[in-house]
């Protein structure tokens, strides 16, 4: 379950990253965002990489910020066979660290740095925050159900025509059976980290996008 949903967020972000990076590299990099040196310190990107990312970001979003509608439109291009709006909503909220309804370039690259080049613990904490929809410090069965339904909606029924209607709930049950160590109905960050770090498949998925740019 974790590998599926974390892979979706990371791979989709990577597709978007490659799009804007490709656009940025078509032109000479000469635009320098305010606070670039600070972002070099806050992320694991070089100054040149940040310049390329910023140029591409501005091409996609001339205003310098991404609102939720634009974010959803970007993701919908990659999943025409499904409905990505709900998953994009959850992902947007994870990127919107200031909870102000918009994602700035700074918000974007700080999260991107964690997803692509962060430590295992950093990546797991970011994923936990994505699943913890109301940000109260634990993942409930209802939250994971919403996440799984959004992933299956995004992939589309035609992607897996033989998929049973119960598949999302089966994944939720598997998630809680594995993660909820004390059977109290919620998964805490401690349970999440402990379980993930002992799972070989999850650990391998954490390295899928190391140093891709």
Automatic annotation (TrEMBL):
Coiled coil: none
Pfam family name, one: EF-hand_8
Superkingdom of the organism of origin: Eukaryota
SUPFAM superfamilies, per the entry: EF-hand
Signal peptide coordinates: none
Any one GO CC term of the record: voltage-gated potassium channel complex
Domain EF-hand: 83-118, 119-154, 167-202
GO molecular function, one term: calcium ion binding
GO biological process, one term: regulation of potassium ion transmembrane transport
Keywords annotated in UniProt: Calcium, Lipoprotein, Metal-binding, Myristate, Repeat
Known role: May be involved in the calcium-dependent regulation of rhodopsin phosphorylation. Binds three calcium ions.
Similarity remark: Belongs to the recoverin family.
Name under which the protein is recorded: Potassium voltage-gated channel interacting protein 2
The organism of origin for this protein: Lates calcarifer
């Amino acid at each position: 379950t974790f590998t599926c949903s974390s892979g979706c967020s990371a791979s989709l972000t990577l597709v978007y990253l490659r799009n804007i990076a490709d656009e940025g590299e078509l032109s000479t990099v000469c635009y320098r965002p305010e606070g670039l040196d600070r972002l070099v310190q806050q992320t694991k990107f070089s100054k040149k990489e940040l310049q390329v990312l910023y140029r591409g970001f501005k091409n996609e979003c001339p205003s310098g910020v991404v609102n939720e509608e634009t974010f959803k439109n970007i993701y919908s291009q990659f999943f025409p066979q499904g409905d990505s709006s709900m998953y994009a909503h959850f992902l947007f909220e994870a990127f919107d660290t200031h909870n102000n309804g918009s994602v700035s370039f700074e918000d974007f690259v700080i999260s991107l740095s964690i997803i692509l080049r962060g430590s295992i613990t950093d990546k797991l904490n970011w994923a936990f925050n994505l699943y913890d929809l109301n940000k109260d410090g634990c993942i409930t069965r209802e939250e994971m159900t919403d996440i799984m339904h959004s992933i299956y909606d995004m992939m589309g029924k035609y992607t897996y025509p033989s998929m049973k209607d119960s598949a999302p709930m089966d994944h939720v049950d598997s998630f809680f059976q594995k993660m909820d160590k004390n059977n109290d109905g919620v998964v805490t960050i401690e349970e999440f980290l402990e379980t993930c770090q002992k799972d070989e498949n999850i650990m391998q998925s954490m390295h899928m996008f190391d140093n891709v740019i």
